[in-house]
Amino acid sequence: MYRSFRQYIKQHHLVETASTVLLAVSGGVDSVVMAALFHRAQIPFAMAHVNFKLRGKESEEDARFVKQLARKFKVPFHYKEIPLKGKQASGASVQMLAREKRYAWFEGLLVDNGYAHVATAHHLDDQVETVLINMVRGTGLAGLRGMLPQQGARIHPLLFATREEIRSYAASQKLSYREDSSNASRKYTRNRMRLDVVPVLRQINPSLEKTMEANVARWADAEAIVNSALVMFRDEILEDKGTHLEIPRWCLSPQPGLQLLLSEVLKDYGFHEDVAASILQETGKTGKEFFSGTHRLTVGSSVIYIRKRSPKKKDDTPPSWKWNLSKATLRINRGIFTRKILNKPPAKWPKDPAIACLDADTCGQVLTVRYWKKGDTFRPLGLKGSKKLSDFFTDIKMDRAAREEVPLILSGNKVVWIAGCRVDERFKVKPGTKRVLQLSWKMDL
What we know:
Blueprint: H1 2-11, E1 21-24, H2 29-40, E2 45-51, H3 57-73, E3 77-81, H4 91-113, E4 117-119, H5 124-137, H6 141-145, E5 150-151, E6 154-155, H7 163-172, H8 189-204, H9 208-237, E7 239-240, E8 245-248, H10 258-267, H11 274-281, E9 289-291, E10 295-299, E11 303-308, E12 320-324, E13 329-332, E14 335-342, E15 355-359, H12 360-363, E16 366-371, E17 377-378, E18 387-388, H13 389-395, H14 400-403, E19 407-411, E20 414-418, E21 422-423, E22 436-443
Parallel strand pairs: 1-2, 1-4, 2-3, 4-6
Antiparallel strand pairs: 5-6, 7-8, 8-11, 9-10, 10-11, 12-16, 13-14, 14-22, 15-22, 16-19, 17-18, 19-20, 20-21
């Protein structure tokens, strides 16, 4: 066991010379063996223990045990209490919360104390359970390859060893450790996998752990190949427009491997792996939208749009800005407006759709700028009747996502100009116009 540990550390370059590693020690057999191996190998380390106070007296005894262990090894000991008692409505959610709190604290300890890594005592059986859980829930290649020997500042120096090998080493070295009674609770998914599923799989394949170890290595190689291709694919298809990203719609064609590459690209923006499959099924539906926690994806007629999701107001109204025309410019979140006051109509009417000429006196001194919302209407230049903006956008074949990038200029509650698109008939320059308000819109790219 010790020889394998040293070999694994060296093979994966987990510990730098003269660096100190922070060990996450719960007091269970796995973390105690990890600490004993680091001590035997004379690798500088410190120990950290979090008490979530979920098991009453047991939790307190665990903390005392780990503190004594640190004293025995004569290493720095870090201790923190994060009470989670009373937050146990869902076993899975409490475990997730505990994990987040624990690792956030570990990361702080690394920075504050100059530790090189934080080491956790995950082993090969944990790896098997992790991969199986990921497979059941649905996953990509990253979920299939499970935990890596090193992931950022986190290292897993016991991934080579099975649970049985760790317990055997503890017995041979006469190591004391704590038993966590919650490991027998079937309210946790991992426990159900370990207690109910893995034993059945082991009946089919007695070498389950070693077989899965080989599989994980192959899947890790496959992930590396895909990631290499992904870099080239991302550079080819992803266009940054400043306010949003665009992906050409040809990426939705049913070519072999395209769904995998697309799902990996979308994963960077918080979309689950199955979103790519859903998008491919909706290829004929322009305007179809998908949401992650951070981004919105919209299938346009020729491109796919990816935008950050903005926090919405409680009343779900779009943001708005007041523009007193005594100021020559107005900066909004997606660009800038500028204005000129002309004493007569220009000799040449601007052909740029981002420039509009309006009757200044009809518009008034203070304008409002906002984005469109359901129910907005205006009178398109050249027409007498009113029209819903949603119908106007449909007529000019503007994608739903693009519509949300177009600001409106309003006088009171009347639309004056759909920036870059159309002036309202009521605010056009007329034969009797005395002053011309010339507005320009420049969108940030």
